[in-house]
Each structure stands twice: as C-alpha cells, then as structure tokens.
Design a protein that fits this description.
The chain is mainly alpha-helical. The protein contains six helices and no strands. It has one domain: Up-down Bundle (Fumarate Reductase Cytochrome B subunit).
C-alpha cells in the first residue's frame, strides 16, 4: 500500500522559509566584509519577518500561529514522548516545533533590531541621525571630547556586540531546529523538509 503524500506547508511558508535560509546564511557570512550588502540582506529579513507575522494570522491552516503555538506543558510532554520514541504525530508543527518557531521569530526580531541600531550608530540606515544611545545626552555630563569619543565607541561596540551575540545564538537555535526536524522525520518515517 502506497503512502499518500500530504502537502502541509503552503507556498507562502515555503518561500518564506527558504528565502530566510538564504538571506540569513548570506548575512552571517558577509557581516564583516560586505557591510552594505549585509544591511540590505537584513532589511529583506525584516520584510520576511513582517510577512510571516501577518501570514501567521491570515495564512492557510498550518501557517497560522493558532495551529501550532501551544503552552510549554504541551511542548515538554511532546519532548518526553519523543525521548521515549513514541511521539504523537501532528500535521504542521508539533508543540516543540511551535516553541522553536516562536523562538526563531523572536530571535530574528532581536537580531534585526540590534543590526539596525548598530548601523544607525555608524550613521547609516533608517535610524541614522536618531538618538539611539543607551544613555540620554541629558544625563551624560562630559566636558572632555576624549570622554565623549570613548563613550560613543563603547555604545557603537555595544550594539555591534549584541548583534553578533544574537547572530551566534541564532545558529544554536537553527541547529536545534534542524535536529528536531531530523529526529521527528525519522520517528514518524516522514520527510518533513519536503
């Protein structure tokens, strides 16, 4: 008896996913060398995030957040059943996958925000010229130019350091996401990527 193939992910989710994979990979690899292209890639990721957030409310059944965002208890129970080798089968994201999607979207949001802030500190991007400093100038009472330059350099580095940390943290989440897909695919005898 042949297994019937069920298409779960709609075109919007597929295009979002693989565009994000491509843009994140490019952004991660180009960060220090191709700053302007890195920024444009980041802007495209912001566009993808906006699309996915909207699609999470108006998209097809399995694209909607209501279909896969569940409480932490369900995610923990699912992981326990997965560990025992007998997880419940879900069309769309399982509870642990739902938690991972929320974490990935939140992480990408923080990553792009810190990228915008770091780029603005350098005088570039849509926030250039805005006061993106951590400490208001009203409280920063420095009389010497050297102190101001040192403070500005540290703030520049702050946003850059947080942005780099978030990029590396995203790699951890991506690894866990891929591991979850591989394990789930094997346990259920399905090709979840397809």
């Amino acid at each position: 008896m042949e297994k019937q193939e069920v298409v779960v992910w709609d075109l919007g989710v597929r295009v979002f996913h693989w565009s994000l994979v491509t843009l994140f990979t490019f952004s991660y690899l180009s960060g220090d060398e191709l700053e302007e292209l890195h920024a444009y890639s980041g802007y495209a990721i912001i566009g993808l995030l906006i699309f996915r957030l909207v699609w999470g409310f108006v998209g097809s059944k399995h694209a909607r957040f209501a279909d896969f965002v569940r409480g932490p208890r369900e995610a923990i129970d699912y992981l326990k059943s997965m560990w025992k080798g007998h997880p419940r089968r879900y069309l769309g994201h399982n509870p642990a996958g739902g938690v991972m999607i929320v974490m990935l979207l939140a992480g990408l949001s923080l990553l792009t925000f810190t990228g915008l802030m770091a780029y603005a500190e350098e005088g570039h991007g849509p926030l250039a010229g805005a006061d993106v400093s951590l400490v208001s100038n009203a409280y920063a009472d420095h009389d010497e130019d050297d102190d101001d330059e040192e403070k500005d350099g540290k703030e520049d580095e702050f946003w850059e350091e947080v942005h780099e940390f978030m990029g590396n943290f995203m790699l951890v989440l991506i690894f866990l996401h891929i591991a979850g897909v591989v394990v789930s695919s094997r346990l259920h005898g399905e090709n979840l990527v397809k």
